[in-house]
Design goal:
The chain is of the alpha/beta class and 396 residues long. The strands form four sheets. Strands 1-2-4-3-5-16-6-15 form an eight-stranded mixed β-sheet, sandwiched between helices.
């Protein structure tokens, strides 16, 4: 029997167990870098499988080795993130979050469950492959500086050195049963912007005696949008969004300060650095020109994510073999960010998407929403496909 058939049968036999694992993790979500119960649960599952090479990393992360024959021949890494989001779950399901204000609204419960399924499949086949699989159960994807950066600093890609790495992520825009790939540039870098515009408050009927930080902020936001529309090369994807503005005045009160937060994203590191300089210069010039001042902080976040063409081509072919060509779709550039990008900057990588949508069941909500959920048929597919893609990558 081929590895393809063995893996499909094994994944099918694990289906009910994977659903139970995912529901347990989903109902016990933990925030970034606080995944203490989650990582303990994952380790218990690995112990039950009989996997012994488990190493704690980054406080709430794990490095797991599954060695075949000739372990040093090649090392393929597989990554899953484990953290949840500060969201109140609105789903009325038996596995609803039991931790108030915390929810697995980005599918990391799915990623962790699938990698546990992969662990069981690959462990059962360890006498049939040459090389080593390094499984990465990672904390803190949702929060800077990103758990991936911490694990890399602690040597997750070394000893043994990783030759390539695969990661998968749920995609509620893709129907269950399908997966998506993109070669080359895929996801954006992300920077957080924190701004305080400082003026001089006073009575709304006497603006001439004030320095209005709201008026300064309004001009600043409009001008900063031109960083993207007029300073960026049009062929470089860029996004600048301000999603939080606080001006604690009143109908007749001009406040002393305005506070705003935003995000800047792009797929070019040179332009990213230049844009930072232009934003700082623009904000300071507008504030000073109108008599105020500004404290403008840019917290540099994750780099852009790039998929290695050769690794991605092999993973895509594995998906075609596993699911059929009609169930493998091509993806566009996605301006969201992912700390898997850190791995992709230092090792040949492929980050692909696992379809979880089912309109007939009403499973259509996007990630980071209180009603996000998945069609749990995706679990068997996610575990089986990742195991098969990993085996195929190890062969090359």
């Amino acid at each position: 029997m081929s590895h393809l058939q063995k893996i499909k049968e094994k994944a099918k036999s694990l289906s009910n167990n994977l659903i139970a694992i995912r529901r347990h993790i989903h109902s016990h979500p933990e925030l970034s870098f606080q995944e203490f119960e989650t990582v303990a649960y994952v380790k218990a599952q690995l112990d039950a499988i009989g996997i012994s090479q488990i190493k704690p990393m980054a406080n709430t992360g794990l490095e797991v080795l599954i060695e075949g024959k000739n372990p040093s021949k090649k090392v393929v890494a597989l990554r899953a993130d484990m953290d949840a989001l500060p969201i109140v779950e609105a789903n009325e399901v038996s596995y609803k979050s039991q931790n108030p204000g915390v929810m697995h609204a980005c599918g990391h419960d799915v990623h962790t469950t699938c990698l546990l399924g992969v662990a069981q499949i690959l462990h059962s086949l360890k006498d049939e492959f040459e090389g080593t699989f390094k499984l990465i159960f990672q904390p803190g994807e949702e929060k800077l500086p990103g758990g991936a950066s911490l694990m890399i600093k602690e040597g997750i890609l070394e000893n043994p050195k990783v030759n390539s790495i695969l990661g998968q992520h749920v995609m509620p825009l893709i129907p269950v049963g399908k997966v998506g790939f993109r070669s080359g540039l895929y996801m954006a870098s992300t920077d957080e912007i924190y701004v305080k515009v400082i003026g001089k408050g006073g009575h709304g009927a006497m603006p001439h005696l004030c320095i209005d930080p709201i008026a300064i902020t309004a001009q600043m936001i409009v001008a900063l949008q031109q960083v993207v529309s007029r300073s960026a090369n049009p062929i470089i994807p860029s996004v600048l969004t301000f999603g939080k503005v606080i001006a604690n005045g009143a109908t007749n009160v001009i406040p002393n300060e305005v506070y705003l937060e935003g995000t800047f994203r792009t797929l070019d590191e040179n332009w990213r650095s230049k844009a930072h300089e232009i934003m700082l210069r623009t904000a300071n010039s507008i504030a000073e020109g109108l008599g105020g001042r500004v404290e403008f902080e840019i917290r540099k976040g994750y780099p852009f994510l790039k998929n290695d063409p050769e690794i991605t081509a092999r993973a895509k072919q594995a998906a075609i073999d596993y699911l059929g060509k009609e169930n493998v779709v091509d993806l566009d550039i996605w301006m969201a960010a992912e700390d898997f990008s850190y791995y992709s900057q230092v090792a040949p990588a492929c980050f692909y998407r696992l379809g979880t949508r089912n309109e007939e069941k009403g499973i259509v909500s996007g990630v980071h929403t209180p009603t996000f959920d998945i069609d749990e048929n995706a679990l068997e597919i996610g575990a089986g496909l990742m195991a098969y893609a990993a085996i195929e990558e190890l062969k090359k």
